[in-house]
Amino acid sequence: MLWEGNRGLYALLQAARHAGPLVRVPRLGWVVTDPVLARRVLNDHGSFAMNGEGGVGHLWTQLFGEDMGRFFGGARHAEVRTRARDLFTEDAARALVERSQGAHHADLARRLAAGAVVDVADTARVLSGRMVADLLGLPADRPDAAYRDLFAAGERLASLAVGTTSSTDLDPATVARARAIVAEITAAVPAAYAGAGPGTLLGRCREMGFGLPLSRGLATLLVIAGTETGASGTVRTVALLHDTGQQRALLADPSLTGNAVREGLRVAAPAPVIGRHVARDAVVAGRRLRAGERVLVLTYLATNGAGPFDVRRPYVPETRQLWFGGGRHLCLGAAVAREQVARMLGTLHAAGRPYRITSRRAARRVLVPSYASLEVSLDLRRG
Predict the structure, then answer these.
(1) What is the pLDDT of residues 358-378, one digit of tens each?
(2) Is 118 helix (H, G, I), strand (E, B) or coil?
(3) DSSP string of 42-104?
């Protein structure tokens, strides 16, 4: 799947697999594959920044301006996390997923029990879009096609970053294409920003005095983080459970669901690379990283070093939630992502039967490796 989705990423991961925990690669910068060193980098916000060449904040600043750059590197980021934290608790995540996806999961369970073949990849894209729309405060009464379009636009925007491994500087033509996609993604944001309630992210942005341009940037960021990575982690976990034969263990003992979710996200690592800019000289593992250089944290290798997917694997402290990042930029929606995966697994197993994958097709040229299609049906045979 990595090969089909992003061949540059695949080649980088293959080359780095045997290169050591921290190495300097010409044209790329420093490459980190060890989970402990990865967390050291992600937790040191003074030395390793999201703004500047190599950091994801550099990409977003080019699209949305200096206000977005100041958001990634300043106090407003901490303010958003503090003021919006209650929207992302475990209880809030369960309520959000139930509110935005519950009826669709019930319908999916009925269709599977009746013998239908369903495309889990398409379903995950639609449900992720509905969840993000609800969280932002966008209209919720749109047909599934609207959320497919939202996901596709997010995927097109994310794919523009496929070639930024060696440099996060975007040429003017790429910036123009990206801004056109952003306008498509955020077409409904101005109206929602004006009227969204306090239980939505856009409502909180308005209450905090964020202007519409910055709010549009945050909405776009949530669309990418909430749909692309969420759908990928969900669908790939479904595939891993099937391919390893471990869904039967989960059927026999549903208390393993939390383990299955954690293992699926660990092995899939929906954010396989995290970039940082070296803001000031720092020493990591005896190596001096100098200001102006770049760091690529290969989360895919850092998390997969613990071993293959195993629903009975005990908690691995070295990799704890590294697939969600680390430090003050740890994914705010981690609980929502876990709940989405758990809910999909529960729906597929609602009839008490294992599912089988009848066909699959990997997504091509995407930033976040995933399936374009993953069709499943229940094994309804007796016994």
Answers:
(1) 999 999 888 888 999 999 999
(2) strand
(3) HH-TTTEESSSTTSHHHHHHHHH-HHHHHHHHSHHHHHHHHHHGGGGSHHHHHHHHHHHHHHH
The yes-or-no verdict on residue 383 having pLDDT over 70 is: no
Q: What are the CA-CA distances from residue 260 to residues 250, 267, 272, 376 (Å)?
A: 8, 10, 19, 18
> Which residues are CB-neighbours of 201 under 8 A, at least 6 positions away?
84, 87, 135, 136, 137, 218, 219, 222
**222 contacts 150 by C-beta, under 8 angstroms:** no
Do residues 215 and 207 lie in contact, with contact meaning Cβ atoms separated by under 8 Å? no
What pLDDT score was predicted for residue 366? 83
Of residues 343, 379, 364, the one with CA closest to residue 128: 343
d(CA 203, CA 200): 5
Closest of 327, 163, 164, 135 to residue 223, by C-alpha: 135
Domains and CATH numbers, the chain: 2-378 (1.10.630.10)
Our measurement of the distance from residue 56's CA atom to the centroid of its chain's CA atoms, rounded to an integer in Å, reads 14
Residues 6+ apart with CB under 8 A from 366: 5, 6, 155, 158, 159, 162, 228
Rounded to an integer, what is the distance from CA 343 to the centroid of its chain? 17
Across the chain, mean pLDDT equals 92
Judged on CB neighbours under 10 Å (0-12, 13-18, 19+), 348 is buried
CA distance 64 to 66: 7
Reference 121, options 151, 156, 154; nearest CA is 151
Q: Which amino acid is at 108?
A: L
How large is the average pLDDT for residues 304-309? 95
Angle between helices 120-136 and 212-223 in degrees, nearest 10: 160
